[in-house]
Design brief:
159 residues, mainly alpha, three-stranded antiparallel β-sheet, 5 helices, 7% strand, elongated
Length: 159
């Protein structure tokens, strides 16, 4: 399958998952806090690996991913401070209120990547590596938010 079609398929899958997961209040258990970020990290690595197989060098992709992570975690920490979280009667469960911002970040990351590959197939290895950096930014921003939520598990009183 062509890389741009694979990217479009992943865009559709992630869009559906993110839409249904992020636009409604979600009960988050302390024990499951990191499942989503780990799954999305694996997905991003899988997609980046497809770039490596096509034309971009490992160095360019690694640098783009490092820059994406370096920018994404502070952004996620800032966004996490503004995420509304409610305590429940169970001290190991918090309710995370929905936000449009994560949906927009994920949509722009995957749609931008798909558009780059569909409409600019000869953009070159730097553009391909940059698209991997955008994915890394999206994953790292989610990790930053989860770090803030993890701190809230310790701070929120039960009830």
């Amino acid at each position: 399958m062509r890389p741009e079609i694979t990217t479009a398929v992943w865009l559709a899958v992630v869009a559906v998952v993110v839409y249904f997961r992020l636009l409604r209040p979600v009960s988050v258990r302390a024990s499951r806090l990191w499942i989503g970020p780990v799954a999305l990290s694996v997905l991003a690595v899988f997609i980046a690996w497809g770039s490596y197989e096509s034309s971009a060098s490992v160095t360019a992709i690694s640098l783009a991913i490092a820059i994406g992570v370096a920018l994404g975690i502070p952004f996620g920490l800032l966004r996490g401070r503004h995420t509304r979280v409610r305590a429940t009667s169970n001290p190991r469960v918090l309710i995370v209120e929905p936000s449009f911002i994560p949906l927009a970040i994920w949509f722009l990351a995957f749609a931008g990547r798909a558009a780059l590959r569909l409409f600019l197939p000869r953009a070159g290895p730097v553009a391909i590596a940059a698209s991997d950096g955008v994915l890394a930014f999206a994953v790292a921003s989610l990790i930053g938010v989860r770090l803030v939520i993890a701190r809230r598990f310790k701070a929120e009183p039960a009830g």
